[in-house]
Write a structure and sequence with these properties.
- By secondary structure, the chain is an alpha/beta fold.
- The protein has one domain: Divalent-metal-dependent TIM barrel enzymes (TIM Barrel), CATH 3.20.20.150.
- Helices cover 43% and strands 15% of the residues.
- The chain is built from ten helices and eight strands.
- It has an eight-stranded parallel beta barrel, surrounded by six helices.
- Helix 1 packs parallel to helix 2, helix 4 (86-104) runs parallel beside helix 5 (125-144) and helix 8 runs parallel beside helix 9 (228-237).
- The structure holds manganese (II) ion.
- Manganese (II) ion binds at residues 113, 153, 186, 212, 247.
- This is 5-keto-L-gluconate epimerase.
- Keywords: Isomerase.
- Residues 29-266 form the Xylose isomerase-like TIM barrel domain.
């Protein structure tokens, strides 16, 4: 398993569950110093990232790009994939494809989290699900040209009513004709929704494509009451070789959160 840490470039998301906030240059250099393998970037849009500059910074720090989040599509631009308005859905899919195109140049995936939207008084649950499936087909097919999957993240009930568990996510992926979508299993969301986090990971099997590595209270690993022994054993059992990515509050501050996650990563993966 490989280590990864989140960098947010989205001012509107201040206070959100991202570890590093100090711009790409400083954040990437710091992640490199601490020995991380990769970064996951949450950007306002693709225009906020200069691919050549990012490539230079990553090379200098010896890091890979693991993934790009699409959440700013919702947080900043109010675009979501289950919107009642067909034109808005099209814009949302375009936003996702643009992120896929940028991430793809780095052999990295785009992540669909909060852009999945939700059913409401206007869009009923089967329709919201249908819109989400259309978007995942579109993005999964688009990502295939870069030989990377699109990553879909079930969220807890307070953030979506589309898919809240790994089982729901597996069912959703099985209903698609594309095979090019994997699941992001976020331990914070799972701690709310799953009966047993380790069992859920095992049931996800080879569909588990990315992990958000975080504690029960969304603080860095080791700062809550999550029981990691069985979780790591489950990931080993399914032969998970991807990233354990710190998507956590910058608690007590970004530097210490990054150091704490790296200590925890080494403890759990090297013991
Ligand atoms: Mn997450």
């Amino acid at each position: 398993m490989k280590s990864c840490i989140t960098i947010s470039l989205v001012e509107e998301a201040r206070g959100g569950p991202f570890v590093l906030w100090d711009g790409l240059e400083k954040s990437i250099a710091f992640a490199g110093e601490l020995g991380y393998d990769a970064v996951e970037i949450f950007a306002p849009g693709t225009e906020a990232i200069d691919a050549d500059q990012l490539s230079t910074l990553l090379d200098k720090a010896g890091l890979k790009l693991a993934a790009l989040g699409t959440g700013a599509g919702w947080v900043k631009h109010k675009l979501q994939l289950a919107d009642a308005d067909a034109a808005k859905r099209e814009q949302a899919k375009k936003f996702v494809r643009d992120v896929i195109d940028l991430a793809g140049q780095f052999g990295a995936s785009a992540i669909i989290g909060s852009m999945q939207g939700r059913s409401d008084a206007v869009v009923d649950a089967p329709t919201a699900r249908k819109y989400l499936c259309e978007a995942l087909e579109d993005g999964g097919n688009h990502a295939a040209q870069y030989n990377v999957p699109l990553i879909y993240e079930p969220l807890n009930r307070y953030e979506t009513n589309q898919c809240c568990t790994v089982a729901d996510g597996v069912k959703l992926l099985d209903s698609l004709s594309t095979q090019n979508v994997t699941l992001l299993c976020d331990l914070f969301h799972m701690n709310i929704e799953e009966a047993d986090i380790a069992e859920a990971l095992i049931s996800g099997g080879d569909k588990v494509g990315h992990i958000h590595f975080v504690d029960s209270n969304r603080r860095p690993v080791g700062c809550g009451h999550m029981q990691y022994g069985r979780i790591i054993a489950a990931l080993r059992q399914i032969n998970y070789q991807g990233y354990l990515c710190a998507e956590a509050f910058a608690w007590p501050n970004p530097e210490e959160a990054a150091r704490q996650t790296m200590r925890a990563f080494k403890y759990w993966t090297q013991s």
